[in-house]
Amino acid sequence: MKQDETMKVKRYDDTNVNPDFVAERKKCTFNIELLTNIIDGSSYLTETRRQAQLAVLNNESFSNLPDRYYASRDEAYAQNIRKSAAYIKLLKEDKSISRAESYFMQCLIFPNEVPPFSLHTTMFTPTFESMADEEQKKLWMPRIENYEILGTYIQTEMGHGTNVRGLETTATFDPSTDEFIIHSPTLTSIKWWPGGLGKTCNCAIVMASLITNGRNEGIHPFIVQLRDFETHEPLKGGLTIGDIGTKLGFHGMDNGFVKFDQFRIPRRNMLMKSAKVTRDGTYQKEKKLEKLKYGSMVFVRAMLVFNQAGQGLAQAVTIAARYSCVRRQSEYAPGQEEPHIIEYQAQQHILFTELAASYIFYIAGNKLRELYFTMNYDIQKGDLSDLPELHALSAGLKALTLDEAVVGIERCRLICGGHGYSAASGIPKIYTEVVAACTYEGVHPVLYLQTARYLLKVYQAALLSSSASSLPDNQSSKYIFRHLHSERPRFHFPLSFVEIVEAFERRALMCIEKASKKLDGLLATGRPHHEAWNYSACYLIRAAKAHSHVYLTSSVHEQLETVRQEDAGVYTVLGQLFELYALKSIVDHAVEFIESCGITTDQINICIERIEALLLNIRPNVLPLVDAFDFPDRLLGSALGCYDGNVYQRLYEYALNSPLNKSTVNVAYFVYYIAINIS
Ligand SMILES: CCCCCCCCCCCCCCCCCCCCCC(=O)SCCNC(=O)CCNC(=O)[C@H](O)C(C)(C)COP(=O)(O)OP(=O)(O)OC[C@H]1O[C@@H](n2cnc3c(N)ncnc32)[C@H](O)[C@@H]1OP(=O)(O)O
Ligand SMILES: Cc1cc2nc3c(=O)[nH]c(=O)nc-3n(C[C@H](O)[C@H](O)[C@H](O)COP(=O)(O)OP(=O)(O)OC[C@H]3O[C@@H](n4cnc5c(N)ncnc54)[C@H](O)[C@@H]3O)c2cc1C
């Protein structure tokens, strides 16, 4: 990114900081910058992020006007398009902007929003690049990279989302014209939900059942132009396109629908890397590349762990922590000043356990992102051997971390009392964005079951093998092989970090064993496989969750081992957060740990006592620990969570700006109430 020498705005305003915050920050016992580097992934990424954020803060085109919480849907959409236009212009002008820089800029330009063009970069382009043949890439990529083509990803229909094989939209080859005819045969086959489809995008990847020579060959991707490149009107010839209406959140996004009525596209608009239809209508496919079509779903799921679960929860925690260090409430000791609510153990228990979870999701999410890029390099070259592992990991972790994050965000809102319910707290906005990710890219029961399917295969292989050597080193399920044929150790309390990881592994192995036994038992009674699978679902889901917990704990433990060599202060605080997250999970799933690790209820009580001790350990560092996330105020969008802690002044300003305060007597009251009931 080109450096702008004229940058004026600082990322933080250090003047006029609430004195309570100044005192809190003085208690810090560790090197905040080093922790920030760990959260970002490296010191290089911290610097890159800061430069990108400064570029946004110094560019007036990216300001949020009108206030984001008072904007109507029309205004929110218009504002997103205005900012998108400026952002895309910048990307086109400055080709040196890297992928990481553009990512960091986008997060701040659209705080807690998925903007209308985002499907272009997260799903449309990656799917095209992965599924198009070389000739198609030459033809289309320059216009895709130049944003002349703005694309979305159209898969879900009104009647089918999860069951991709059940999609009804057809793409029938017509050899007489060398075209495919895209058609929505029923009401339920209308494509529904794609982001940016309603008003913004002019092209799309459409997933449809390919029919040629009278045979249905299954779901395939097609690139389809939807709107005229000059007038932006929907193309004639059989398209009905629109916005699907108001949702829980995503107000600035035009999630849309499209009904195809015998709409024609050239044959070569089928993406032909792994399968093709020749001029005479012959269908050919390369079986080994078949699963590439799922690739963009794996990509987004893997990114959601750090981007939505990690960052979303960390933002809510930052807001709740800062507010808890400002807010005073209740008489603690008779006659004394009311304490900050952070001093209440009940508050600390919720806040610090969520703080710990946000660190775990961020760090494990970074590791998953790196693993994705490493494994995907081979996958794109045609070696798909790592894909099942990547799919199982990304599906399970997307589900587990987002499940825990949305509960955590809501808990953070609740511990802010009444002001948490105001949009000005910023938490409702974070919640509605993050909770959407629990649905898009696959609902969680279904994703857990995908992970379980993989785990049972690994377990079967482990039963037949006597060592772990048949699995590559990077496989997260290697512990299944290791522990299946080894003695369970005796655990000592309080647990060491190494013992914590082994306890999670033993618990996961037991859950997998139980799921396998349950399934086999049902099969042995003569039930068909699909029925036995369905009635094992609760066991299978428990196994997938336990396995995902293994990845979280083992990857953060690995990070701790590196930090241990570098900095004692950071090692201590990160270790406390790791231990807190792990012990809380052990207590929450005590039955599974007692059964799998041979531990007693007394030892669970030791964990409960240890959690209380950790709350006291973490207390002095609470503000520095959220400062380490390094969120600019604009990203948080919160009166309660600002860096300077001037909560009440900002809440008052927010209320004064309410559109209802533009007049002293509201016209509706005058016209309806006074006119009818008083005159
Ligand atoms: C710091 C630096 C930064 C760096 C920069 C980087 C920054 C980037 C930042 C980005 C930030 C993000 C922002 C977000 C914005 C997003 C906006 C919203 C987007 C929303 C888009 C959508 O919402 S878009 C629709 C998604 N809709 C689903 O998600 C449907 C779920 N439904 C299914 O996913 C299937 O339908 C389901 C269930 C498998 C059954 O399908 P099915 O019946 O065919 O499957 P079966 O169970 O029979 O499985 C058949 C065999 O396929 C295997 N397999 C199945 N899936 C596989 C897979 N994915 N990969 C591999 N393999 C797979 C399976 O494991 C079996 O393998 P095997 O036979 O060997 O066992
Ligand atoms: C904000 C948002 C943005 C989206 N963006 C896009 C987009 O850009 N492009 C796109 O194509 N789609 C998009 N979607 C659609 C999204 O991917 C689907 O909603 C999602 O995959 C779930 O499908 P569904 O809504 O049909 O739910 P269903 O499949 O009908 O599932 C409903 C419920 O049934 C249960 N269930 C279903 N199947 C099973 C099963 N096999 N086993 C156990 N339980 C089951 C689950 O509890 C599930 O929650 C978006 C959705 C949202 C909310």
Automatic annotation (TrEMBL):
This is Acyl-coenzyme A oxidase. It comes from the Eukaryota. Its cofactor is FAD. Residues 31-150 form the Acyl-coenzyme A oxidase N-terminal domain. It is found in: Peroxisome. Pfam families: ACOX (PF01756), ACOX_C_alpha1 (PF22924), Acyl-CoA_ox_N (PF14749). Belongs to the acyl-CoA oxidase family. InterPro entries: ACOX_C_alpha1, Acyl-CoA_ox_N, Acyl-CoA_Oxase/DH_mid-dom_sf, Acyl-CoA_oxidase, Acyl-CoA_oxidase_C, AcylCo_DH-like_C, AcylCoA_DH/ox_N_sf, AcylCoA_DH/oxidase_NM_dom_sf. The active site is at E441 (proton acceptor). One of its GO terms (biological process) is fatty acid beta-oxidation using acyl-CoA oxidase. Keywords: ATP-binding, FAD, Fatty acid metabolism, Flavoprotein, Lipid metabolism, Nucleotide-binding, Oxidoreductase, Peroxisome. Its main location: other. GO terms for molecular function: acyl-CoA oxidase activity; ATP binding; FAD binding; fatty acid binding; flavin adenine dinucleotide binding. Residues 499-669 form the Acyl-CoA oxidase C-terminal domain. FAD binds at T156, G195. Residues 294-456 form the Acyl-CoA oxidase C-alpha1 domain. Pathway: Lipid metabolism; peroxisomal fatty acid beta-oxidation. One of its GO terms (cellular component) is peroxisome.
